[in-house]
Write a structure and sequence with these properties.
Blueprint lengths: L9 H7 L12 E9 L5 H13 L3 E3 L2 E6 L2 E7 L3 E8 L4 H5 L22 E11 L5 H7 L6 E5 L4 E5 L9 E7 L6 H19 L2 H28 L4 H42 L3 E2 L6 H94 L3 H30 L4
Parallel strand pairs: 6-9
Antiparallel strand pairs: 1-5, 1-6, 2-3, 3-4, 4-5, 7-8, 7-10, 8-9
Helix pairs in contact: 5-7, 6-7, 6-8, 7-8, 8-9
Amino acid sequence: MTRPPDHPLRLALTELMHERALPIFSGPVVVRSWVYLVDDNDRDAETAWIDSLDAEGGASAHGRLAVLTPKGGRIWERHGEFSTWLSFTTALDAETEAHKGLGFCTIRSADFDWLKRAPGTVFRSVEISVLPHAPAPDALAEAIDLTGAVCCEVFDGKARIWSDFRGHEGGAGRIYIHDKGLRNDELSRLLQSLIEIGHYRKLALLGFPVARELMAWLKDAEARLAGITRDMADRPAAQADILERLMSLSAEVEQRVNAVRFRQGATEAYARLAEDRLDSLRESRVEGFSTMAEFIERRLQPAMRTCEAASKRLDDISVRIGRVSDLLRARISITLEMQNQDLLRSMDVRAKLQMKLSHLVEGLSVFAVSYYIFSLLKYVIDPWTGHSELAHKLYGGLVALILALAWLFIHHRKKSLTGGEH
């Protein structure tokens, strides 16, 4: 039996489920990750640079470049508005590191000077060390500030993590993982979750300064809208000025919406992703420390609430401007209707006046036409009759006849022009 053809996206979507997995399945290992914010104008330069690295021996795919060795490697990935670099190494002695530096600084910033050529700006860096031993207290205290640190069991107690969310060597944050029995791809998933939690948490905070600046502008905009509404009630005659002010404010609001809408949406998406990754850790508390979810939510949620409040206030003022515009349009419409009624009444008065004038002109026209006709006939008759009494009698009847004929002629022409209407 002939096999039906595959859908064009079948294999691509299958590979998508495995695309972002880290090739790290056992410790000890040290991972260093960077986030670069890359402007759209720099994407072509980034692509050219990645192609040059690919030519040096990397295995590339769409939006991803991996250069792997038996002892480690590096991975680049492109995202919407940022790119990530990840470097890892398994070339370390777990016994020695457990009592020394806990693996931190194994990968130094100086070892990656080549990254300085990467387009964009460094936004975040984190270093994660995974060892199969509980950390020596002195070594842990030296590497991580325990006074404000996070410590919790993750993946149902198969690992314990420590982090102080502070910058250390090269400005990188630090996370220490005590591997207590992670199996299969659990280490890979744990590392991926911890890296993404930090990345998305900090990316979400990009919207916070925008929200604070927007809040300050909204306070002024709401005061201006209140002033416009008050003037509508107090000064109904100043509609042109009110309309101009309202349209100016409406244009400013739309400009703000266009300017901040992407950042608002991205902030919400990043915050949700961070929350999803926190849920995937399956944390349990260690006495005396906050869990990672508690630490992040305590600091992230107020910022997100500010962003949400700014977004709602921006939408609210847009709706309120729409309502005020409807009221102003209704008032202008009523004013125009009243003006049209006044105009119609004045036109009716003018029409009646014109009719009276028309009748007056019609009467005068009869006399004027009759006078000219009589004058012409008199010039014809006088040579024959002279100034006799018979001529005067004839002129009297002739005047009456001419007046009657002139009136009938003008009246007939008027009816033919007006179609019989009066």
